[in-house]
C-alpha cells in the first residue's frame, strides 16, 4: 500500500483524462465536436472502469466507486439495456411462418479490397434479396457485373472522387414506374423494390467522417432527400457514426425511421489485427419504418474490407404469402 500511495495523484489524473471526454460526449446535441467524443463512448467507459479499479486499489473508495458506477451506466446507454437513460432501438421479432422472410446485405466493400472474389462468394452463399453497398468504385462495378444475371435490378450512385459511391442491387424487381434516386454526390441512393407485391423503399447511405470532417453538414444537406422515403422503408449504410452518437438520430428524424440495434463492431482499422475486431466501432447502421418487421441483424465473416458485412432478415407485416414475384437466383440456389 505504501508503494501505491504515491500513484494516487496519477491515477486520479488518468481517471479525469478519461472522464472529461466521456462526459463531453453526452452533450453532443450542442455541437458536432462533442459528438466526436460520443463515438468512443464504449471505449472510454471501459478505460474509466479500469481507472476505477485502480482507484479502489489505492483505497480512494469514493472516487473509485463513483467512477465504476459511471462506467457501468455509460455502457448501459450504448447497449439499450436501460432505455430510460440510453438508446431506444427498434424491436426484433420472431419470424412468422405464414410470412416470407427476406434478406438484405449491407456491406462497405472497401474501394481497394484485395479479395473481391471472396465478396462475390459470400453473396453467392448468403443469397440476399437485396444488397446495399458502399465504396463502389468503377473497378467494383466491373466485378459486380459477374452477378448481374442474378441481381438484374440495380442502382449505382457514383461519388465525385470515384471512390465512395453507393449502390443497390436486387434480385427482386424495382417497382414498375418508380424512379430510383441518387442524391448527386453518391452518398445516398433510394430504390422502390417489389417484395412479393409490396413496395419497400430501400436506401443505401454512406456518410463522411465526423467533425472536424463534414459529416454533420452532410446530413443537413441530405435532409430533404431522406424525406423521399415512402411509408415502408429500410435504410442501411456506413454512417461512420456509432448508434448512440447524434448522427443516426438525425438520420432517423429526417426519414421518419427507427434505428435498429447494432450487431456489434463492424469496423476496425486495417492497421490492427483482425483478432481485435471485438474492440472496433459499430458504424454500419440499419433503420426501418412502416410494415418492416425485423427478425435478426448479424455480422458475417470478414472478406477483405475493413468493415464486416451485415446481414438483415425481415418480413412485411401486411404480406401474407409471397405470390411469386419474378426473382433471379444463382445456379442451384433456392430463390426464396
From TrEMBL:
The record's InterPro entries line, in alphabetical order, gives:
Endo/exonu/phosph_ase_sf, Endo/exonuclease/phosphatase
What protein name applies here? AP endonuclease
Give this protein's Gene Ontology molecular function annotations.
endonuclease activity
SUPFAM superfamilies per record: DNase I-like
User: Would the keyword Isomerase turn up in this protein's UniProt record?
Assistant: no
All copies of domain Endonuclease/exonuclease/phosphatase, residue ranges: 105-307
Organism equals Kumtagia ephedrae
Q: Which residues cross the membrane?
A: 41-61, 68-91
Q: Which UniProt keywords apply?
A: Endonuclease, Hydrolase, Membrane, Nuclease, Transmembrane, Transmembrane helix
Amino acid at each position: 500500500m505504501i508503494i501505491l500511495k504515491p500513484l494516487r495523484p496519477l491515477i486520479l489524473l488518468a481517471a479525469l483524462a478519461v472522464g472529461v471526454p466521456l462526459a463531453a460526449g453526452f452533450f453532443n446535441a450542442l455541437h458536432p465536436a462533442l459528438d466526436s467524443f460520443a463515438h468512443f463512448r464504449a471505449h472510454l467507459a471501459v478505460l474509466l472502469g479500469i481507472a476505477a479499479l485502480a482507484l479502489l486499489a489505492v483505497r480512494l473508495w469514493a472516487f473509485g466507486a463513483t467512477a465504476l458506477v459511471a462506467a457501468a451506466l455509460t455502457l448501459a446507454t450504448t447497449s439499450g439495456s436501460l432505455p430510460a437513460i440510453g438508446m431506444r432501438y427498434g424491436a426484433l421479432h420472431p419470424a412468422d411462418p405464414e410470412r416470407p422472410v427476406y434478406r438484405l446485405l449491407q456491406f462497405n466493400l472497401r474501394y481497394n479490397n484485395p479479395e473481391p472474389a471472396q465478396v462475390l462468394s459470400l453473396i453467392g452463399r448468403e443469397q440476399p434479396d437485396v444488397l446495399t453497398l458502399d465504396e463502389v468504385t468503377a473497378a467494383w462495378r466491373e466485378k459486380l457485373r459477374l452477378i448481374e444475371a442474378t441481381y438484374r435490378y440495380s442502382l449505382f450512385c457514383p461519388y465525385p472522387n470515384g471512390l465512395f459511391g453507393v449502390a443497390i442491387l436486387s434480385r427482386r424487381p424495382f417497382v414498375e414506374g418508380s424512379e430510383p434516386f441518387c442524391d448527386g454526390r453518391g452518398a445516398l441512393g433510394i430504390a422502390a423494390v417489389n417484395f412479393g407485391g409490396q413496395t419497400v423503399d430501400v436506401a443505401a447511405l454512406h456518410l463522411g467522417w465526423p467533425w472536424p470532417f463534414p459529416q454533420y453538414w452532410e446530413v443537413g444537406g441530405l435532409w430533404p432527400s431522406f424525406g423521399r422515403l415512402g411509408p415502408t422503408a429500410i435504410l442501411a449504410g456506413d454512417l461512420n457514426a456509432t448508434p448512440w452518437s447524434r448522427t443516426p438520430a438525425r438520420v432517423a428524424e429526417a426519414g421518419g425511421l427507427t434505428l435498429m440495434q447494432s450487431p456489434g463492431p463492424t469496423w476496425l482499422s486495417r492497421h490492427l489485427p483482425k483478432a481485435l475486431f471485438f474492440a472496433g466501432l459499430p458504424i454500419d447502421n440499419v433503420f426501418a419504418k412502416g410494415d418492416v418487421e425485423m427478425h435478426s441483424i448479424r455480422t458475417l465473416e470478414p472478406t477483405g474490407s475493413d468493415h464486416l458485412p451485415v446481414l438483415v432478415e425481415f418480413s412485411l407485416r401486411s404480406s401474407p404469402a409471397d405470390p411469386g414475384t419474378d426473382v433471379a437466383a444463382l445456379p442451384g440456389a433456392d430463390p426464396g
